[in-house]
Amino acid sequence: MIDAVTKPKTKVKPKTERPRLHKVILVNDDFTPREFVVTVLKAEFRMSEDHAHKVMITAHRLGVCVVAVFTKDVAETKATRATDAGRAKGYPLLFTTEPEE
């Protein structure tokens, strides 16, 4: 009689990576009214009045400010919609995205 060697079956779980996150960045300019920037932050990023004001002031003082972090598609969509809101009113308001490190 032949002894057969059997290996136990192992379950291999595929490792799924989390999607890479992207930062939405508010770029300061000298023409867009502060109140309008706060309004856009509240509308597009669902910020409170106080939080939106702090983000706007930070961008004003430092030149740029990270607004939020999302997956790539969401970040690009929100940045585009916020920038377009400024363009619709004739302001050079700019939101950009970049990968988080």
Topology of this structure?
Elements: E1 21-27, H1 34-45, H2 49-62, E2 64-71, H3 72-88, E3 94-99
Antiparallel strand pairs: 1-2, 1-3
Helix pairs in contact: 1-2, 1-3
What do you see in this structure?
With 101 residues, the chain is of the alpha+beta class. The protein is 43% helix and 21% strand. The chain has helices at residues 34-45, 49-62, 72-88; strands at residues 21-27, 64-71, 94-99. Helix 1 crosses helix 2 and helix 1 runs antiparallel to helix 3 (72-88). The longest helix has 17 residues, at 72-88. The radius of gyration is 23 Å and the shape is rod-shaped. The mean pLDDT is 93.
Main β-sheet, in a few words? 3 strands, antiparallel
Distance between the termini: 61 Å
What's the overall average pLDDT, rounded? 93
Beta content comes to 15-25%
Number of strands: 3
Lateral strand order in the biggest sheet: 2-1-3
Using only C-alpha atoms, the radius of gyration works out to: 23 Å
Give a short synopsis of this structure:
The protein has 101 residues and is an alpha+beta fold. The chain is 43% helix and 21% strand. The model has no long low-confidence stretch (mean pLDDT 93).
Keywords:
alpha+beta; 101 residues; single chain; rod-shaped; 3 helices
